[in-house]
Amino acid sequence: MERRDFLKISGSSALGLALIPSLISSCMGSAQKSYGIGIYTVRDALEKDFKGTLKKLSEIGFSDLEFWNYNEGAIFGNPAAEVKKMMDDFGLKSTSLHAGITPLTNDFDRLLETASTLNEKYLVCNYLVESERTSLDDYKAHSDLLNMCGEKAKSAGITMGYHNHDFEFFDFDGQKPYDVLLDRCDKNLVKFEMDMYWMTVSKQDPVAYFKKHPGRFPLWHVKDMNREKQFTPVGEGVIDWKEIFANADTAGLEQYFVEQDQSPGGDVFGDITKSLSYIKENKL
User: Fold this and answer.
1) Count of the separate structural domains present in the chain
2) Which of 14, 101, 184, 214 is most buried, by CB atoms within 10 Å?
3) C-beta separation of 55 from 27 below 8 A
4) Secondary structure class of 105 (helix, strand, coil)
């Protein structure tokens, strides 16, 4: 080999080696998920000071908000465009917007417009009131509605979702409503947001559902439970987070949200700060 050829090859190799760390860093950075928070957790604070609460969530370290309390194009009474401006001011984004059956049925066009304004990726049916879940036929009808909304949302680049509680696991003639929803909802149009607290209360195995329905659970509620079945900061309860997160790829996880429905000690911001610290320390 000529000396000049050797120098060219060795120089190229050195350059390639020098670029490897930055390439690795770039790849790792692109895979890093945002730290999300379900704003239902801080609903009382939002009622008192909406903008100030968003700012505080950002300062704690959350960057992705899952919105709730939609009504006629507004969030907690704030027009969607104003909410988006507040998010931009504090370096926040929102991946998911929660809404109930009534706006999905009667106000879907405006709901979808709101989701688009907030730059949402998912629009999630978050709860069924008691009168909306009296039989399997109710769940079948909801599945049809979700499929219909999912088809319409798809044109706006938004995916429909469904969030569980415990009542989806109540027995109806030997069937679980959750299984009916999974079977009847089009997997290409409707995804599922798994709430780990309610799965645990209902004695269900999240990982078993991931393996049975791979890729259908891109959203999670990371919500812990203590031995008395009370809500507690993530990492202070009985849920095996390491096992659940070890199966994130099977689930199809894209974004998770810390949520705590109640803070028994009364310090909601202290509790979610503990949750976020646990997540960071354990690299979840």
Assistant:
1) 2
2) 101
3) no
4) helix
